[in-house]
Amino acid sequence: MEAEGSALEEAVEWFLDHLKVERGASPHTCTAYANDLSIAVQFFSRRGLENWMDLDAELLTKFEAAQPRDLSTATRRRRISALRSFLKFLKRNNEGPAADLPDTGGFRKPRLLPKALSIDVLQSILEAADIQKPSGLRDRALMELIYGAGLRISEVLDLELEALSLETALVRVTGKRGKTRIVPLPKLTVQWVAKYLEEARPKLLKRPTSRVILSDKGLSMLRQTAYHRLELMARLGGYAEPISPHTLRHTYAVHLLKGGADLRAVQELLGHASIATTQVYTGLDLEEVKRKYSAAHPRG
């Protein structure tokens, strides 16, 4: 950032501290905000702005218009969104400008519905793991936890042994902003995780750690490695389209809804703060959801 120690920078640091300490934002989130707001500080500093309270609508419009067109829509929208969140924070603390908050609508891209895997395709991918090897059993357990419990990749990689209760088929998950939820585990997921813990994890373990999922070197597995292992399993299982751990999580939600699960229940299981976030899954087969609703509702 330019003008080190400036009032613009100090306000940004205040906001980042708020995200980290009070909101419990992850280091990744804080870094993303810091990078985006650094660009904003540079832009406004070069145009003579010394205090955020003096920011006016004209200067905001110039910042929005100055976003490079060769950037992706998502990146431009994220930058504007970061500035909007920051200015909203300042306004709540009576330190923000009188100007209206920037609008991200112009950069909003249509929400793409996730593509869920069919039961047959999912099974082919799960069965592609070479369970004769410790690493293969690990891969199967990893995929079972993501699909069987609908976990985020960060949640499964951070999972500790004491959070697993295979006897009661439950897992305690610490999600975004440190929120904890209890998620039931399907019978097959329990069986595969138990097999991994008994037969494979001891062979992978190189030094004491309470992490459930271990890398080939006996360390905590990296996100990139998890993505790579899933992509490999997908190719071996004959699935040629792009896939990620999030695909398995989407598939978990869709399969629950198609099976008749209540949307609110799925929201709780996924750890979504808002039902609106979960709502996207209903669009995958809206007619089927409507039929289930009509069949279940007293008024038909």
What is the succession of H and E elements?
Answer: HHHHHHHEEEHHHHHH
Mean pLDDT: 85
Which class best fits the helix and strand makeup?
mainly alpha
Characterize the overall form: elongated
What is the terminal-to-terminal distance?
60 Å
In what order do the strands lie side by side in the largest sheet?
1-2-3
Stretches where pLDDT is under 50 for at least 5 consecutive residues are: 106-110
Largest sheet: 3 strands, antiparallel
Please give the count of helices: 13
Share of residues in helices? 40-55%
Q: Report the β-strand fraction as a percent range.
A: under 5%
Please give the number of β-strands. 3
Give the C-alpha Rg: 23 Å
Describe the structure.
- By secondary structure, this protein is mainly alpha-helical.
- 55% of the residues lie in helices and 4% in strands.
- Strands 1-2-3 form a three-stranded antiparallel β-sheet, with no helix packed on it.
- Helix 1 (7-22) runs antiparallel to helix 2 and helix 6 packs across helix 10 (245-258).
- Mean pLDDT is 85; it is low at 106-110.
